[in-house]
Structures are given as C-alpha cells and as structure tokens.
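re: ur msg from earlier - yeah i can do the nicotinamide-adenine-dinucleotide complex, just paste it... oh wait u already did. ok heres what im feeding in:
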Amino acid sequence: MPKDISKLQESSSSLYATVQNQFDRAADLMRLDRNVRSILSKTTNEIIVNFPVKMDSGKVEMFTGYRVQHNNALGPYKGGLRFHPAVNIDEVRALATWMTWKSAIVRIPMGGAKGGIQMDPSHYSCGELERITRRFTFALGYNIGPEYDIPAPDVNTNSQIMAWIMDTYLSTMPAHERNRCVHVVTGKPVEAGGSLGRDKATGQGIVFMIMEWARQSNFRLEGSSYFIQGFGNVGAWAARLLKPLGPRLIAVEDIGGRTYNPEGLDPDALLRYAKKKGGSVAGYPGAKSLSREAFFSLKADFFIPAALENQITAETAPLLTVRLVAEGANGPTNPEGDLILQKRGISLIPDIICNAGGVIVSYFEWLQNKRSEFWPLEEIDRKLKTLITDGFNRVSAEAEKRAIDWRTAAYIVALRHLEKVYRERGIFP
Ligand code: NAD
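and the outut:
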C-alpha cells in the first residue's frame, strides 16, 4: 500500500497531459498529417464499469473498473490490466495511448489499450481477488475479445489473474467456441495456454536494449554498476537477466523501502528474500537502508526505473548521477524530468521501446494460441531480440538524423508508421 496515495493520485492526474505534451512535440517536429493528428490525439473507446462483489464476510463491496481503447489501426487493442488504488481514467488513457506507440515502433499488428481496477489487492483474500477479477471480466463483457481487445498483466496482476479472466470469458461463450478463444488474454500460465518466456519478457527486452545501447556507445557492461526502482515482474527479471552480463546491482527501491550495498546485491537472493518477506526488499541482511534522496543521488552507470510513473521529476532528475536511464516502467519520467536529463547529457531509452518486450511476447503468445502451436524458448528469445532491436535501431537512427532526444524520435517512428497506414486505408466513409 503506497504511503501517500493522495500524492500518487494527484501526480497521475496529469499523466495524460504528459502523453499529449510528448505527442505534440513530435507531431509538430515531423509535421504529422493534420487529420491523422486529430484522430490519434483522442482515445477511441472508454469503458467504465461499477460492479458488486461479495466479500468473505458476506458484505457486498462495489468496485470501479476501466478499459480504455486508444487505437486499433494496426490490429486488435492490446494492453495490460492494473490493480492499484491510484488507477483512474486519466492514467488509463495515458497507458493505453503508450501501447499504440509501442506496437507501432516494433511493427507488431496490435493496437493500444489499457485497463484496471481502482483497489489495493493486498487488502483482499485470494478468494475475494478471484471473485473481483471474474466479476470485472463479466462486467467488461464483449468489450474484450480474442480478435478485438486482449488484456495482459501489469502492476499487481499476474498469470493467475489472466487464467481467471480467460476462464470467465470462455464460460460466457457457447461450448463449441471456447477452444478457439483462449487468446482473449496473454500472460497466462504456460499450462493454461501461456507462452514460454512471457513472464521474463519485459525484463528480457530491457536487457536487450541496454546491451544494444552499450554496443553503440562502446560501453563495457562487465564491471559497471546500476540501481533499480521496483522489484516486481519487470525490475526483478531485468536484474536477474543482467547478472550474467557482469554489471553490479548496488541498490533497489520498492514499496517497502530501499536497500543498498556498494559491493553488489545478488538479484536471485534478493528476490528469494522479498518473496519470504511479503514482497519487499527492505531489511535485506548485510545491506543498508537509504533515504529517497540518497537513493536518487547514487553514483552509478545506469538506472532502471521499473515501478510507477512520475518518478524522475524536477525534484529527482537533478540528483541522478548516471550515464543512462533505461525506462522499464511506463511514464517514469515527466516532461520536466525529461528536459533536465537532456540538459545534463544523461541518455535515456524511452519506455515505449525499452519495455516493449512484454507486448512483443504477448503477441507471440496470441499467435501460438491462434495456431495451436507451442514455440521453444530459444525461438521466442531470438524473435524478441530481433523485433525489439530493430525498433531500437529505428529510434536511434531517427534521433541521430534529426539530432533530437530519443523519446521524441521514438514518437516520430511510431507516428510516421501510423500516418502511412491511415493514408493507405483512408478514413471511412
Ligand atoms: P509489479 O506489480 O510486478 O511490481 C511493481 C514494483 O514496484 C514492486 O516491486 C513494488 O513494490 C514497486 N512499487 C510500487 N509502488 C512503488 C513506489 N511508490 N515506490 C517504489 N516502488 C514501488 O509490476 P510490474 O509488472 O513489474 O510493472 C512495473 C512497471 O512496468 C509499471 O509501470 C508497468 O506498467 C510497466 N510494465 C510492465 C509490463 C509487464 O509485462 N508486467 C510491461 C511493460 C511495462
């Protein structure tokens, strides 16, 4: 449970303004077609559902759930579901829009969507969570679907929750339709139709991005140092996959606090500890605690924000003493933070390419389900590396050509692709 939810809600109320600020900057610079600009500056559908769930006590509680579908010009709407107290329509709009850009940059045939429920899952029993998830799925009805809108895990949701969504959705279908609809969600457990490599996909993609950046910058990862904010699916996988490449993890911050050891923290041991201690790395033996300010001021080669949005801001960006920020989270840097990093010469791999590994392997899971296939992990990793590295190279080439920051370059790559698609297809009628 965040210590200061009201502050979080306040900051996330401007998240869609951040997206629009980024979008306008790129659209002006590239002179995006006026009509395409007005289409992409709006979301297509916004679904808000209020639904009742019976608690273990017998009392009924009302919940509010969201699904925002930004754009489906490239393919079915696609994006995660988040269970968090700060979920609101503005945040979901922003996250849905970023999903459209991600798929366009890595050239997968998916659109952009996002959703969630405003709640703190740690307050509910497993049975209650299952009923909340199933009732939310039922309330969404055919606003989601295997060829229409495909949810996936995000903050505080996981493969178990995806399995419940699939099972509920299939239960609403005629019996003979069920087996051809298992791709209504991705990020499922492998036994229930999931893909190998989906759990680590976002972390794996971040590692491929850092490797490519290191290659282009003649930077040696071996012996370098870094720190991470967020040690959930994305942060913990990124750290575990970086370990064999040789950089030293010196600090981690999560919801429970910060842990620091300049000699290096072992990501696998840290994860085992966090699992034992209810999910947090705080109090890890042999490591020190740090203030938030000291955490952001750590001297290291790179920083991976992998928790929530609006973390690198006018207050924290001046503190960062790193060469690179690799954005694992969605929207961790606000526009003021962005400008400060640029002025200070800190490189940044933006979220819309850096964390696209999740949606890429979700797309692979979707394809495997449609074809009743099961791909080996080596094939998935190889295809992921190709798609995300190609995306990275498109972005870096655009940034170099125009001498602009990488976020704006990533937007231009996405918008140029969407602009072409709209030109070719035209606008109905
Ligand atoms: P998660 O729920 O597995 O982990 C979230 C982590 O953030 C936890 O360690 C939690 O303790 C920490 N955290 C939460 N609030 C915090 C706070 N106020 N300060 C510091 N740490 C805090 O979530 P995840 O799936 O790892 O997602 C993390 C980020 O990555 C989100 O921005 C999400 O949208 C993005 N993302 C996730 C995926 C995916 O495949 N799961 C894909 C792309 C992007």
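cool cool. The chain is about 45% helix and 15% strand. ping me if u need the other ligands too
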